[in-house]
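Handover notes (outgoing to incoming on-call)

Open items:
1. Qat anti-phage system associated protein QatB: sequence verified, structure written out, both below. Nothing else pending on this one.
2. Nothing else urgent.
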Amino acid sequence: MGTSSAFGGQGGGTPLVPSWLGDDGAPPAAPDGAPPDGGPPDGPPADAPADGAPPAAPPAPPARPPIPPVADPARFSAARNNFSRFAGSGGSDRKSLGRAVSHYVGSSSGGARTAAARMGSARGAGSRLLGFLSDAVARGATEALRSLNLGALAGRPIEEIFLGLADYVCPDGGSIDEGIAREAFIETITDLAGAGITDLDGLTADQMQTVFELYATNAIEARLCNDIGAKTITLPSDSREAARVQAQLNDFVRRGVADALTVARAAAAALTPDRVLQFVGRIYEQAFGILQIMGDAEAEGA
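Qat anti-phage system associated protein QatB C-alpha cells:
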C-alpha cells in the first residue's frame, strides 16, 4: 500500500487491458542502424520495381489496433467496499480481505489471465530484474554489472547497486503503469535487508527467487491498491492498526506469489534469457489465480 499512495486510482470506465499495454508497457526499440519500420538502412526500398516496370501500388496503411471496450464503471465497487471494511476493522476482518481480493481478480479484472496482462510495465521490469539476477548467480555480480555498463557499482553495498539498476529495470515514465513498476522496485530495495540479502557477490539461486518474490509482491499489491482507489479507502487513525492492515495485505499477496514460484520451481531452474518474460508473465497469472482461491477460502472462514 505504501507504493500506491502517489496514484489516485483507476476510473471505472478504464479498459481492462489498454490497447497500448504490451509485454513491458512500451514498444521494442529498433536495432542500431535500422529504420523504425524494419526496412533496409541504405539503398532502394526492397519492393522497388525493376527498370521499365510500372511502379507498385503503395502498401495499405497498417490497421489500427482495436479500441478496447469500455469496462463496467462499477467493476471495482465490490472489491473496494470489502477492502474498506477490512481496513476499517484494523485488520481483524479477514473475511472482507478475502472477498476484496477474490472480487478484484475474478470480477473486477475478469480473471487471472487478464489481471496478469494488466501488469504490463511490472511484467517487463520483473523480467529484466530476474534476468540480471540470474546472470549474477551464473557469472558473478561484477560481470553481470559490466554487461550493463554498470561495472563501477561492483563491490558497492547492495542497496546502492539496486538504486543504480533502477533505470535499467524500470525506466522512469509518465504513465501510472510505469510508476507502479518503479515504486514497487524501490519498495523492494527497502525490503532486501529484512530478507537477509546483503551481498550481491554471493547471491544464491534461492536468494534470487526471494528478490523476485519481493518485487512481484510489491507490484501486485500496488496494482491492486491503485485499481480499487487507494485514496478512497480510509485507513485506521491508529498507526499500529494501519501498519497491521498494510502488513496483512502484503503477507497475503506474498503467499500467493510464493506458491506460484514453488509450482514453477523446475521452470525457474531451467530459465534461459529468451524465456524470462514468458516465465514472469506465467508467474503473475498463477499468482493471481492462487490469490483468488485464497481469497475465497478466507471469505468462507476456512
